[in-house]
Amino acid sequence: MTQITYPTIAECVGNTPLVRLQRIQVPNNNTLLCKLEGNNPAGSVKDRPALSMINLAESRGDILPGDVLIEATSGNTGIALAMAAAIKGYRLKLIMPANMSSERKAAMTAYGAELIEVSKEEGMERARDLALEMQAAGEGKVLDQFSNLDNPQAHYVTTGPEIWQQTHGQITHFVSSMGTTGTIMGVSRYLKEQNSAVQIVGLQPAEGASIPGIRRWPTEYLPKIFEKTRVDLILDIAQSEAEQMMRRIAREEGIFAGVSSGGSVAGAMKLAEQVENATIVCIICDRGDRYLSTGVFDSH
Protein backbone atom coordinates (compact mmCIF):
# COMPACT_ATOMS: atom_id res chain seq x y z
CA MET A 1 0.00 0.00 0.00
CA THR A 2 1.26 3.50 -0.90
CA GLN A 3 2.32 5.52 2.12
CA ILE A 4 0.27 8.71 2.29
CA THR A 5 1.86 11.76 3.90
CA TYR A 6 -0.51 14.31 5.34
CA PRO A 7 0.48 17.91 6.10
CA THR A 8 0.88 19.34 9.58
CA ILE A 9 -0.88 22.59 10.44
CA ALA A 10 2.46 24.43 10.20
CA GLU A 11 2.72 23.33 6.59
CA CYS A 12 -0.65 24.97 5.87
CA VAL A 13 0.67 28.50 6.48
CA GLY A 14 0.88 30.55 3.28
CA ASN A 15 -0.30 29.90 -0.29
CA THR A 16 -3.33 32.09 0.37
CA PRO A 17 -5.76 33.07 -2.41
CA LEU A 18 -5.46 36.23 -4.49
CA VAL A 19 -8.93 37.37 -5.59
CA ARG A 20 -10.31 40.19 -7.72
CA LEU A 21 -13.11 42.50 -6.70
CA GLN A 22 -16.39 41.73 -8.47
CA ARG A 23 -18.96 44.41 -7.56
CA ILE A 24 -16.95 47.40 -6.38
CA GLN A 25 -16.01 49.34 -9.49
CA VAL A 26 -12.28 50.04 -9.83
CA PRO A 27 -11.60 53.16 -11.95
CA ASN A 28 -9.29 53.73 -14.93
CA ASN A 29 -9.25 50.16 -16.21
CA ASN A 30 -7.22 49.06 -13.20
CA THR A 31 -7.33 45.58 -11.68
CA LEU A 32 -7.50 45.41 -7.87
CA LEU A 33 -6.54 42.09 -6.29
CA CYS A 34 -6.82 41.14 -2.61
CA LYS A 35 -4.44 38.69 -0.92
CA LEU A 36 -6.60 36.82 1.63
CA GLU A 37 -4.24 36.33 4.56
CA GLY A 38 -7.13 35.52 6.89
CA ASN A 39 -7.05 32.08 5.26
CA ASN A 40 -3.92 31.19 7.25
CA PRO A 41 -4.51 28.66 10.08
CA ALA A 42 -4.45 31.22 12.91
CA GLY A 43 -6.29 33.76 10.80
CA SER A 44 -3.80 36.41 9.74
CA VAL A 45 -0.73 37.39 7.73
CA LYS A 46 1.25 37.16 10.99
CA ASP A 47 1.22 33.35 10.83
CA ARG A 48 4.10 33.66 8.37
CA PRO A 49 6.58 35.66 10.51
CA ALA A 50 5.51 33.90 13.72
CA LEU A 51 6.64 30.52 12.41
CA SER A 52 9.64 32.06 10.70
CA MET A 53 10.91 33.75 13.88
CA ILE A 54 10.59 30.56 15.94
CA ASN A 55 11.95 28.18 13.29
CA LEU A 56 14.97 30.32 12.45
CA ALA A 57 15.71 31.06 16.12
CA GLU A 58 15.67 27.31 16.77
CA SER A 59 17.97 26.63 13.82
CA ARG A 60 20.52 29.12 15.19
CA GLY A 61 20.23 27.77 18.72
CA ASP A 62 18.89 31.12 19.99
CA ILE A 63 15.97 29.34 21.66
CA LEU A 64 15.94 25.86 23.12
CA PRO A 65 13.24 23.40 24.27
CA GLY A 66 11.83 24.57 27.60
CA ASP A 67 12.48 28.26 26.95
CA VAL A 68 9.78 30.84 27.69
CA LEU A 69 9.09 33.22 24.80
CA ILE A 70 7.94 36.83 25.29
CA GLU A 71 6.41 39.23 22.76
CA ALA A 72 4.64 42.59 22.71
CA THR A 73 1.67 42.54 20.35
CA SER A 74 -1.48 44.42 19.39
CA GLY A 75 -3.18 41.16 18.50
CA ASN A 76 -2.48 39.26 15.29
CA THR A 77 1.18 38.48 15.95
CA GLY A 78 0.23 37.31 19.43
CA ILE A 79 -2.39 34.93 18.11
CA ALA A 80 -0.02 33.61 15.45
CA LEU A 81 2.82 33.17 17.95
CA ALA A 82 0.45 31.44 20.36
CA MET A 83 -0.39 28.94 17.62
CA ALA A 84 3.29 28.50 16.71
CA ALA A 85 4.29 28.08 20.37
CA ALA A 86 1.54 25.47 20.79
CA ILE A 87 2.84 23.59 17.73
CA LYS A 88 6.42 23.71 19.02
CA GLY A 89 5.77 23.24 22.74
CA TYR A 90 7.00 26.58 24.08
CA ARG A 91 5.50 28.63 26.90
CA LEU A 92 4.55 32.09 25.67
CA LYS A 93 3.94 35.38 27.48
CA LEU A 94 2.21 38.08 25.46
CA ILE A 95 2.06 41.75 26.44
CA MET A 96 -0.67 43.89 24.89
CA PRO A 97 -2.68 47.07 25.42
CA ALA A 98 -5.87 46.45 27.40
CA ASN A 99 -8.09 48.00 24.72
CA MET A 100 -7.55 45.22 22.18
CA SER A 101 -10.68 43.23 21.26
CA SER A 102 -11.91 40.44 23.52
CA GLU A 103 -11.81 37.97 20.60
CA ARG A 104 -8.07 38.53 20.21
CA LYS A 105 -7.41 37.97 23.90
CA ALA A 106 -9.59 34.84 23.95
CA ALA A 107 -7.81 33.40 20.90
CA MET A 108 -4.40 33.85 22.53
CA THR A 109 -5.41 32.14 25.74
CA ALA A 110 -7.14 29.36 23.80
CA TYR A 111 -3.74 28.44 22.38
CA GLY A 112 -2.30 28.43 25.92
CA ALA A 113 -0.51 31.79 25.99
CA GLU A 114 -0.28 33.92 29.15
CA LEU A 115 -1.52 37.50 28.73
CA ILE A 116 -0.05 40.57 30.42
CA GLU A 117 -1.87 43.84 29.80
CA VAL A 118 -0.71 47.45 29.84
CA SER A 119 -3.14 50.37 29.77
CA LYS A 120 -4.58 51.82 26.57
CA GLU A 121 -2.76 55.07 27.36
CA GLU A 122 0.61 53.31 27.71
CA GLY A 123 -0.03 51.48 24.45
CA MET A 124 2.34 49.39 22.38
CA GLU A 125 5.32 51.52 23.32
CA ARG A 126 5.02 50.42 26.97
CA ALA A 127 4.29 46.84 25.92
CA ARG A 128 7.53 46.76 23.94
CA ASP A 129 9.52 48.26 26.81
CA LEU A 130 8.04 45.80 29.31
CA ALA A 131 8.94 42.83 27.11
CA LEU A 132 12.58 43.91 27.13
CA GLU A 133 12.47 44.51 30.91
CA MET A 134 11.12 40.99 31.46
CA GLN A 135 13.87 39.55 29.27
CA ALA A 136 16.51 41.49 31.23
CA ALA A 137 15.04 40.06 34.44
CA GLY A 138 15.50 36.53 33.09
CA GLU A 139 11.80 35.78 32.58
CA GLY A 140 12.16 34.62 28.99
CA LYS A 141 13.43 35.48 25.52
CA VAL A 142 11.91 38.25 23.38
CA LEU A 143 11.43 37.41 19.69
CA ASP A 144 10.99 41.16 18.91
CA GLN A 145 9.05 41.32 15.67
CA PHE A 146 10.00 45.02 15.39
CA SER A 147 13.75 44.39 15.11
CA ASN A 148 13.90 40.75 14.04
CA LEU A 149 14.95 40.30 10.40
CA ASP A 150 13.27 36.87 10.43
CA ASN A 151 9.99 38.82 10.25
CA PRO A 152 10.45 40.40 6.78
CA GLN A 153 12.37 37.31 5.67
CA ALA A 154 9.15 35.29 5.96
CA HIS A 155 7.50 37.59 3.41
CA TYR A 156 10.56 37.63 1.17
CA VAL A 157 10.49 33.84 0.82
CA THR A 158 6.70 33.27 0.80
CA THR A 159 4.34 36.25 0.37
CA GLY A 160 6.36 38.05 -2.31
CA PRO A 161 6.92 34.98 -4.51
CA GLU A 162 3.26 33.98 -4.18
CA ILE A 163 2.07 37.40 -5.36
CA TRP A 164 4.52 37.40 -8.26
CA GLN A 165 3.41 33.94 -9.38
CA GLN A 166 -0.31 34.58 -8.84
CA THR A 167 -0.20 37.75 -10.98
CA HIS A 168 2.02 36.05 -13.58
CA GLY A 169 4.50 38.87 -13.06
CA GLN A 170 1.93 41.48 -14.06
CA ILE A 171 1.77 43.29 -10.70
CA THR A 172 2.49 47.03 -11.00
CA HIS A 173 1.62 48.25 -7.46
CA PHE A 174 1.69 46.63 -4.01
CA VAL A 175 -0.32 48.21 -1.18
CA SER A 176 0.10 47.25 2.48
CA SER A 177 -0.80 48.69 5.86
CA MET A 178 2.29 49.34 7.98
CA GLY A 179 2.54 48.15 11.58
CA THR A 180 5.76 46.29 12.31
CA THR A 181 6.42 46.84 8.55
CA GLY A 182 7.55 43.23 8.14
CA THR A 183 5.10 42.50 5.32
CA ILE A 184 5.93 45.55 3.22
CA MET A 185 9.68 45.21 3.77
CA GLY A 186 9.87 41.56 2.72
CA VAL A 187 7.45 41.81 -0.19
CA SER A 188 9.09 45.01 -1.47
CA ARG A 189 12.51 43.40 -1.48
CA TYR A 190 11.29 40.39 -3.46
CA LEU A 191 9.11 42.26 -5.98
CA LYS A 192 11.76 44.90 -6.68
CA GLU A 193 14.24 42.11 -7.44
CA GLN A 194 11.83 40.76 -10.05
CA ASN A 195 10.89 44.17 -11.50
CA SER A 196 12.30 47.39 -10.11
CA ALA A 197 9.38 49.34 -11.64
CA VAL A 198 6.83 47.78 -9.23
CA GLN A 199 5.60 50.56 -6.95
CA ILE A 200 5.41 49.86 -3.20
CA VAL A 201 2.73 51.81 -1.31
CA GLY A 202 2.60 51.88 2.49
CA LEU A 203 -0.37 52.97 4.59
CA GLN A 204 -0.23 54.75 7.94
CA PRO A 205 -3.11 56.10 10.06
CA ALA A 206 -4.09 59.73 9.62
CA GLU A 207 -3.58 61.94 12.66
CA GLY A 208 -6.08 60.96 15.34
CA ALA A 209 -6.94 57.58 13.79
CA SER A 210 -6.69 54.40 15.86
CA ILE A 211 -6.63 51.44 13.48
CA PRO A 212 -5.49 48.09 14.93
CA GLY A 213 -2.39 46.86 13.14
CA ILE A 214 -1.47 50.20 11.50
CA ARG A 215 0.82 52.59 13.31
CA ARG A 216 2.41 56.00 13.00
CA TRP A 217 5.36 55.33 15.30
CA PRO A 218 7.24 57.95 17.32
CA THR A 219 10.77 58.18 15.87
CA GLU A 220 12.35 56.38 18.83
CA TYR A 221 9.98 53.40 18.40
CA LEU A 222 10.16 53.11 14.61
CA PRO A 223 10.71 49.40 13.87
CA LYS A 224 14.39 48.69 13.22
CA ILE A 225 13.45 46.40 10.33
CA PHE A 226 11.93 49.39 8.47
CA GLU A 227 13.93 50.74 5.53
CA LYS A 228 12.38 53.91 4.14
CA THR A 229 13.95 53.38 0.71
CA ARG A 230 11.88 50.22 0.17
CA VAL A 231 8.60 52.22 0.14
CA ASP A 232 7.87 54.45 -2.87
CA LEU A 233 4.76 56.18 -1.51
CA ILE A 234 3.10 56.51 1.90
CA LEU A 235 -0.62 57.30 2.14
CA ASP A 236 -2.55 58.42 5.22
CA ILE A 237 -5.77 56.51 5.93
CA ALA A 238 -8.53 58.02 8.06
CA GLN A 239 -10.45 55.96 10.60
CA SER A 240 -13.73 56.51 8.74
CA GLU A 241 -12.22 55.49 5.39
CA ALA A 242 -10.88 52.23 6.79
CA GLU A 243 -14.08 51.31 8.64
CA GLN A 244 -16.40 52.21 5.77
CA MET A 245 -14.41 50.16 3.26
CA MET A 246 -14.17 47.26 5.73
CA ARG A 247 -17.99 47.15 5.94
CA ARG A 248 -18.33 47.64 2.20
CA ILE A 249 -16.08 44.75 1.17
CA ALA A 250 -17.98 42.49 3.59
CA ARG A 251 -21.39 43.49 2.23
CA GLU A 252 -20.54 43.89 -1.45
CA GLU A 253 -17.69 41.41 -1.97
CA GLY A 254 -18.15 38.81 0.77
CA ILE A 255 -14.66 39.61 2.08
CA PHE A 256 -14.96 39.61 5.88
CA ALA A 257 -11.88 41.36 7.22
CA GLY A 258 -10.59 43.73 9.88
CA VAL A 259 -10.20 47.49 9.94
CA SER A 260 -6.61 47.61 8.66
CA SER A 261 -7.71 45.49 5.69
CA GLY A 262 -10.45 48.02 4.98
CA GLY A 263 -7.72 50.62 5.06
CA SER A 264 -5.66 48.58 2.63
CA VAL A 265 -8.49 48.42 0.09
CA ALA A 266 -9.32 52.10 0.62
CA GLY A 267 -5.68 52.97 -0.04
CA ALA A 268 -5.64 50.80 -3.16
CA MET A 269 -8.79 52.55 -4.42
CA LYS A 270 -7.17 55.97 -3.83
CA LEU A 271 -4.21 54.77 -5.85
CA ALA A 272 -6.50 53.47 -8.61
CA GLU A 273 -7.81 57.00 -9.12
CA GLN A 274 -4.30 58.19 -9.94
CA VAL A 275 -3.07 55.43 -12.31
CA GLU A 276 -4.35 53.58 -15.38
CA ASN A 277 -4.22 49.99 -16.62
CA ALA A 278 -2.46 48.89 -13.44
CA THR A 279 -2.49 45.61 -11.54
CA ILE A 280 -2.75 46.57 -7.87
CA VAL A 281 -2.37 44.00 -5.10
CA CYS A 282 -3.37 44.78 -1.52
CA ILE A 283 -3.07 42.73 1.67
CA ILE A 284 -6.22 41.58 3.50
CA CYS A 285 -4.31 40.84 6.65
CA ASP A 286 -6.91 39.07 8.83
CA ARG A 287 -10.56 38.09 9.32
CA GLY A 288 -13.39 40.27 10.57
CA ASP A 289 -14.61 37.89 13.26
CA ARG A 290 -11.93 39.07 15.69
CA TYR A 291 -13.44 42.57 15.68
CA LEU A 292 -17.14 41.81 16.19
CA SER A 293 -17.24 42.79 19.86
CA THR A 294 -15.91 46.28 19.03
CA GLY A 295 -19.14 47.15 17.18
CA VAL A 296 -17.39 48.24 13.97
CA PHE A 297 -19.70 46.05 11.88
CA ASP A 298 -22.90 47.36 13.47
CA SER A 299 -25.34 49.14 11.17
CA HIS A 300 -24.17 52.52 9.96
Give the structure's gist in a few sentences.
Keywords: Amino-acid biosynthesis, Cysteine biosynthesis, Pyridoxal phosphate, Transferase. With 300 residues, this protein is an alpha/beta fold.
Structural write-up:
- The chain has two domains: 9-40 and 159-291, Rossmann fold (3-Layer(aba) Sandwich); 46-142, Rossmann fold.
- The termini are far apart.
- The longest helix is centred in the middle third of the chain and has 17 residues, at 150-166.
- It is built from eight helices and ten strands.
- It is α/β, with parallel strands linked by helices and 300 residues long.
- The strands form two sheets. Strands 1-2-10-7-8-9 form a six-stranded mixed β-sheet. A four-stranded parallel β-sheet has the order 5-4-3-6, with helices on both faces.
- α1 crosses α2, α1 packs across α5 (150-166) and α5 (150-166) crosses α6 (182-194).
Q: Can you tell me the overall shape?
A: globular
Q: What is the domain total for the residues?
A: 2
Please state the second-level CATH architecture of the largest domain: 3-Layer(aba) Sandwich
Q: What gyration radius follows from the Cα positions, in whole Å? A: 19 Å
What's the assembly state of these chains? single chain
Element order, helices and strands? EEHEHEHEHEHEHEEHHE
Q: What is the CATH class name of the largest domain?
A: Alpha Beta
State mean pLDDT (0 to 100 scale): 95
The number of strands is: 10
CATH structural fold name of the largest domain: Rossmann fold
